[in-house]
Design brief:
Length: about 120
């Protein structure tokens, strides 16, 4: 018996528009809407889900996505901001460089170049 990751699920008070945003920026597609209460996005890397809740947990999310780009990091940062993400700034640690952003509903995620991803 082996355990594997099925999908990553995010709580949202309005999951359908958030799922559509993630599908757009990741080149995926919404594959299940379930009347807007549990929305599934299929991407090349795996599935994301967005489930409706009455109220999201306040504060910084404890789990976030670390995305990698195989091209120009600055151009990808600009594309994401133009698509509706908010930039929390550029980060560096040694030779590593990445951006921390939030999606349109405030969920944090990071974007780094492929060569700096473990």
């Amino acid at each position: 018996m082996a355990l594997h990751l099925g999908m990553i699920t995010t709580d949202s008070t309005d999951p359908l528009p958030l799922a559509r945003w993630w599908a757009d920026v990741l080149g995926g597609e919404v594959v299940a809407e379930n009347e807007g209460w549990f929305v599934v996005v299929a991407t090349e890397a795996g599935a994301l889900a967005f489930q409706r809740v009455e109220e999201v947990t306040p504060g910084k999310n404890r789990v976030h996505l670390d995305l990698v780009v195989d091209g120009d990091l600055d151009a990808e940062h600009e594309r994401l901001v133009a698509a509706g993400a908010a930039s929390l700034g550029e980060r560096t640690e040694g030779a590593a460089r990445w951006f921390t952003l939030t999606d349109p509903q405030g969920n944090e995620f990071c974007v780094a170049p492929e060569d700096h991803h473990p």
